Amino acid sequence: MRSAKDFFRPLAVGAPAPVREVPFRPSRMIHFFDPGNEKMAAKVPAIAPAVDVLLGNLEDAVAADRKEAARAGLVAIGKSTDFGDTQLWTRVNSLDSPWALDDLITLVTEIGDRLDVVMVPKVEGAEDIHYVDRLLAQLEARAGVRRPILVHAILETATGVANVEEIAGASPRMQGISLGPADLAASRRMKTTRVGGGHPGYLVREDPKDPDVELPRLTYQQDLWHYTIARMVDACAAHGILPYYGPFGDIKDTTACEDQFRNAFLLGCVGAWSLHPVQIDIARRVFSPAPADVAWARRVIEAMGDGTGAVMIDGKMQDDATVKQCKVVVDLAEALAARDPELAEAYEAAWKEQNR
Q1: Which residues have CB under 8 Å from 154's CB, separation 6+?
Q2: Model pLDDT, residue 212
Q3: CA angle at residue 73 from 67 to 77, to 5 degrees?
Q4: What is the mean pLDDT of the chain?
Q5: pLDDT score of 138 more than 90
Q6: Contact in structure between 318 and 303 (CB atoms under 8 Å)
């Protein structure tokens, strides 16, 4: 068994030292684009300032005969684009594919200093992360990359979900984990062809009002992904990394998309994937705490003083546990406001309104 101290030593001579804490950078939306698509590539400079994370996708949705073009396109974009505060991520091909090794070798050696995170699909256990961890260290050393590239895993198989805790703690490079509902549904033999979201057949029905008379009974659609998201959030929180909702495939159903994103936000996720520009603003809105909620949280923190004891505010008891909850909201709001001037202005206006 390796010593815990070894976790914070580079896995290759000349590689940068591993991070000791995952830096929290706003990542409300991970916006996917196909770097081999000329029309999409041309829009990157305009889209980059509008998103927290821009991800060059090399895996699903990129046909086999276009894999090399997508990889070359991402290298060209990485070299030529000023991303400012926006993070550049990539989703490489799965580790059992013939393209994954070339993806990592090419991207790290060509644009390693521009690349923040490598998203690894279909991760099933710590061994997948260990493989990528060592390989990234070797490539960083070869290319002279000055800071470690972080790793993000996607839960897309039943085995991956069963091993989510060991995946979350497999390496100091672990930045976060996303839910991959479509592949996971297939792996579990779930009978849905939707990409994320609920299903009208997955429901509960109210009890009969009169057992002797057949009357209409209300039904309530349930969330197929609640258990998995909650388990993923717990694993991430326990290991100091970040959980994300994945894709919502029905681009036209913006209402259901917003609902699904908000469910994930309330459960503890920090962001979601955006597959189309229309989902960018949804993710920005949902994964940013509401100004009124931030103002209330600040009020509770102020009233609680040193954070001990209990106070009554508007008829509601607040104690040390609620202060911790409120600090989660305020800390997130401050991190987002530092990047988003409009949000900062909205938070300040709500605070002034609360104190009138």
Answers
A1: 91, 119, 120, 121, 122, 123, 160, 177, 178, 179, 180, 246
A2: 87
A3: 150
A4: 93
A5: yes
A6: yes
Q: How far apart are the first and last CA of the chain?
A: 60
| Residue 157 near residue 143, CB atoms below 8 Å | no
Tell me the HSE value of 148 on the side-chain side, using a 13 A CA sphere: 28
Which structure tokens are listed for 50?
């509008």
Q: Which amino acid, one-letter code, is at 319?
A: D
Q: Are 141 and 13 in contact (CB under 8 A)?
A: yes
The whole-number pLDDT of residue 92 equals 98
Provide the token pair at 48.
Answer: 């980059």
Q: Which of 145, 162, 178, 320 is nearest to 248 (CA)?
A: 178
Rounded to whole angstroms, the Cα distance separating 33 from 57 reads: 6
Torsion of Cα atoms, 65 then 59 then 112 then 47, to 10°: 100
Asked if residue 22 lies in contact with residue 16, where contact means CB atoms within 8 angstroms, the answer is no
Q: State whether residue 230 is helix, strand or coil.
A: helix
State the Cα–Cα distance between residues 162 and 157, nearest whole angstrom.
9
Q: What is the mean predicted confidence (pLDDT) over 85-105? A: 97
pLDDT in tens, 241-265: 999 999 999 999 999 999 999 999 9
The continuous run of DSSP H or E covering 56 comes out as: strand 53-57
R_g of the chain, CA atoms, integer Å: 22
Q: What is residue 347's three-state secondary structure?
A: helix
As a whole number of angstroms, the distance between CA 85 and CA 48 comes to 9
Residue in the structure block whose two tokens are 């917003």: 258
C-alpha 30/C-alpha 114 separation (Å) is 16
Q: Please report the sign of the dihedral spanned by the C-alpha atoms of residue 318, residue 319, residue 322, residue 327.
A: positive
Q: Where are the alpha helices (DSSP H) in the chain?
A: 38-47, 67-80, 100-111, 126-143, 158-162, 164-168, 181-188, 226-239, 254-267, 278-286, 291-304, 320-337, 341-354
In sequence order, the β-bridge partners of residue 178 are 154, 244
